[in-house]
Amino acid sequence: MQVGNARYLKPGDLPDTIAVFPLGGALLLPTGQLPLNIFEPRYLAMFDAALSGNRLIGMVQPALGEQDEAHLAPVGCLGRITSFAETGDGRYIVSLTGICRFRLLEEKETHQPFRTFRIAPFIADLSARDEEDAVDRGALLAAFKAYLDANKLEADWESVERASNLTLVNSLAMMSPFGPAEKQALLEAPDLKTRAETLIAITEIVLARVFGDSDTVLQ
Question: H helices then E strands: how many in the chain?
Fold first, then answer.
């Protein structure tokens, strides 16, 4: 997988430990881009360290049902800083591009103000394009269009049509306006096909809850 100027092809290309950025409701997936506005001193220090090193950050949500960052969800996504700007008022505006998911193992003790964990990367994510043919693109686009129509929204359909199945599934999952539990379910889906099916199912549930009959909306 090519991310920015770096290539991640095998386990040796990935770190054993990573600084993690807990952020509820934020979803990063392989190949996806996540913009971030960094202003807390501990996370400014985290990005300073990443920029002077391998440019990698682990995005992870707080554990579901937790109100603080003491307990974290078991699975996150590794991202590379591919865009960086200083605002002049002490903030950083950055963009992370997703590489692969990881499972948190044990926390490492450091003298840094941010948390660092040993991780087990999902190596299969580096070759996820092999899974693209299994995605029901028609059903995914139908659910997406139904959601747009129900909410009177528009989309750049030329860009949508050009997108690969991998980019389409992960981009739609990341931009979906669902809650932390749904975002975590999309993150932890075992493969691209299941993630697409999960995204369709969640969309149908939301449409049924709001409009009463998702089947009518999806037609």
Answer: 7, 8
Instruction: Please give the biggest Cα pair distance in the chain.
Output: 57
The conformation of residue 219, written as its DSSP 8-state character, comes to -
User: What digits encode the pLDDT tens for the residues 50-73?
Assistant: 999 999 999 999 998 666 677 999
Give the number of other CB atoms < 10 A from CB of residue 87. 11
Which helix or strand (DSSP H or E) is residue 193 part of? helix 192-211
Give me the pLDDT at residue 217, please: 46
Q: Are 63 and 71 in contact (CB under 8 A)?
A: yes
What are the distances in angstroms from CA 30 to CA 3, 169, 176?
10, 10, 16
Q: What is the pLDDT of residue 216?
A: 45
Residues paired with 103 in a beta bridge: 75, 120
Q: CB neighbours (10 Å) of residue 69?
A: 16
The Cβ-side half-sphere exposure at 97, using a 13 Å CA radius, reads 16
∠ CA 82-177-55, nearest 5°, is 15
AA letter at 6: A
Identify the CA nearest to 76 among candidates 65, 63, 92, 89: 63
3-state SS track over 106-157: EEECCCCCCCEEEEEECHHHHHHHHHHHHCCHHHHHHHHHHHHHHCCCCCCH
